[in-house]
Amino acid sequence: MSEIEYVVLLGEHGDEIGVAPKASVHGADTALHLAFSCHVVNADGQLLVTRRALDKKTWPGVWTNSFCGHPAPGEPLLDAVHRRGAFEVGLRIRDLELALPHFRYRAVDASGIVENEICPVYIAFTDDEPHPNPTEVAEYRWVDPLDLATSLESTPWAFSPWLVLQAQQMHLFGPPPAIRRAS
Fold first, then answer.
1. What strands, in cross-sheet order, belong to the sheet with 104-108?
2. Please, what is the angle between helix 161-169 and helix 145-154, to 10°?
3. Of 68, 88, 115, 119, which is the active-site residue?
4. Distance (Å, rounded) from C-alpha 22 to C-alpha 119?
5. Do 10 and 33 contact (CB within 8 A), yes or no?
6. Which residue from 60, 36, 30 is spatially nearest to 136, judged by alpha carbons?
7. What is the pTM of this model?
8. Active site residue 117
């Protein structure tokens, strides 16, 4: 893997228009780019939530979904999801389901850094226990989806804006996803 991580830049309608170093993209005027989010479910129907490492550039120390990332130029999205799952939370994931294919958001964190992404959202399953990368994740919890929904409604400021928005658009808090998982 290259020392410099690149992201795919997108036009207003989601068409690829170029690439740029990830480090140069996230700032006060962040270009629209391609990303993804993943929500991981265990055999008990619990969701994995992670707290972002304190030295993350955006939303440090904030609770969020299981993991997120950016596909490298030319990298298939599903390959990127598997790669980031292994890198960020040390998980082998399976049975990926595309939950929100057209999720898009723009948010500004307390430091003024903007996230501006088209970000397909996946649900994945695992039988493993996370082994988080400390440069990415400060801590993690397996939570009941309904408990997470209650927390998101009562304290949305404690969570990443993308998690709050995704939860509002997904059937994340309906019947436990483990019921649907393949055996």
1. 16-21, 6-10, 33-34, 114-118, 104-108
2. 120
3. 68
4. 15
5. yes
6. 60
7. 0.90
8. yes
Contact 87, 36 (CB under 8 A): no
Q: Kindly name the residue from 88, 115, 117, 136 that is annotated as catalytic.
A: 117
Q: Where are the alpha helices (DSSP H) in 90-129?
A: none
**Locus of tokens 């019921």:** 179
Q: List per-residue pLDDT tens for the chain, 183 residues long.
A: 458 899 999 999 999 999 999 988 888 899 999 999 999 999 999 999 999 999 998 999 999 999 999 999 999 999 999 999 999 999 999 999 999 999 999 999 999 999 999 999 999 999 999 999 999 999 999 999 999 999 999 999 999 999 999 999 986 655 544 444 444
Task: Check: CB of residue 28 under 8 Å from CB of residue 112.
Answer: yes
- Local structure of residue 176 (DSSP, 8 states): -
CB atoms within 10 A of CB 109: 17
Degrees (nearest 5) of the Cα angle 116, 124, 156? 50
